[in-house]
């Protein structure tokens, strides 16, 4: 490929809407252009990288026993109604009607479609295990698309679904995919960490996110400083903190004017924040009130709260009228006196507090000497871990301090169990002719998101620094002055030799100033740049620059190919 024919419109200035590094650099380096909110066109450079990532995925999926298929993006509502997700998936699902008034959606995921396919064909244990995958577009109507490819409405995804005869076999398939994903991200040249994660709307059993480590990542990750434990902040298990036992004093209501926040309460009563109880009020998608309580210096983990409420699909901040109707008072809440039928979820650490301060469910009033084990007697009270992990919390596995880092979720693996197979009647016959539901797993990688994550992790002030495996081109040959026939001809020869040697090579034959070409080379991030100028023509001195380190090497015409091969092997 010649740069004079390459459609890569680079920009010197960053578009105002591009907030994060990957979005900015993909715009500036001529990789993407916006079509609509959350929708992008991949230009040739981006598409080359996308195809390289997809090829790595295909090779690893095939090696693990996966078989590639292609399913429709347009999915009939009937399948989603069978699984029970049509009415509960939420506003992210893009729904349409055909000319006959029948409901369809643009697939946000393919559990239903894949389950229906297999249930109609698989009859015997002899056909298991079965691993089917595809790489195609998915659609989710994000409330606020942002950060370029990180959170878009249309995105490319690899999704594989495993079908097995029992839990043990399902876990074998899960481990195969876990290991395959680790190889994929390793081959892509990325620093990543598999972290325990929440299953979310997918449902099922356990899950891991493959998180590409990056300072600007939107995921917060808790990592143990001693063992290999790592989990997303949504999932991180937290040990119960037991307060020092005290004599339980009588409950006492006190006036606390203008203390609707923990900070104001601590200042007014002159009590340690660890002695206070914080309340957060939510309402479910069914309009039911949920009151969550954590220690005053802790934060509520909304995902954990949602998981604690059976049947709830979404949480939103509660309307004040709902709180009042339940006997509560916004800013001054506790479980004491709340009406029956309200979902009350108390963090397990709160239940170990003594003589604490909590709201009295009336304006400008709190209770002192609250002893939750004695005073929280509400019917149906849920006690569980609902707090958000923070720096220094003890590891649930070894007790060492956890440290917080950031990353970008690029892939996730799930065990689904029989959630979909039972709902949709996907069954098989075992060795004895007995019928059982299939055990399923699902596994997905965001292809465009992986590309963006690679940029977030690999960049500097000059532009992108691509890992070799997924760079749009491995080697760039630059004719310093393409207007001079001898330089251009020499560059053409080097370009041809590099191609013949198997290097994925681009020739910059544009009649631009050398500075423009070098700036573009650094911005786009080609791993190696071979510069052909007067010294190359006159002395056979071939200059090779490593984009990642900035090192410059000089080789002869006779040995440069072997040296380029060695350099590429290190990138």
**Rg of Cα set:** 29 Å
- State the end-to-end distance: 22 Å
**Mean pLDDT over the full residue set:** 94
Summing up helix and strand content along with how strands pair, one would put the structural category as alpha+beta
Work out the oligomeric state of the chains in this entry. single chain
Broad CATH class of the largest domain: Alpha Beta
CATH architecture call of the largest domain: 2-Layer Sandwich
**CATH topology of the largest domain, which one?**
BirA Bifunctional Protein, domain 2
As residue ranges, the low-confidence spans are: none
Helicity range of the residues? 25-40%
Characteristics of this structure?
single chain, 571 residues, alpha+beta, BirA Bifunctional Protein, domain 2, YbaK protein, Rossmann fold, 3 domains, nine-stranded mixed sheet, five-stranded mixed sheet, 15 helices, 26% helix
Write a short abstract of this structure.
This protein is an alpha+beta fold. It contains 15 helices and 31 strands. 26% of the residues lie in helices and 28% in strands.
Structure characterization notes:
It is globular, with a radius of gyration of 29 Å. Strand 5 (94-97) and strand 6 (103-106) form a beta hairpin. The two termini are 22 Å apart. It contains 15 helices and 31 strands. The protein folds into three domains: 21-236 and 404-456, 2-Layer Sandwich (BirA Bifunctional Protein, domain 2); 252-384, YbaK protein (Alpha-Beta Complex), CATH 3.90.960.10; 473-569, Rossmann fold, CATH 3.40.50.
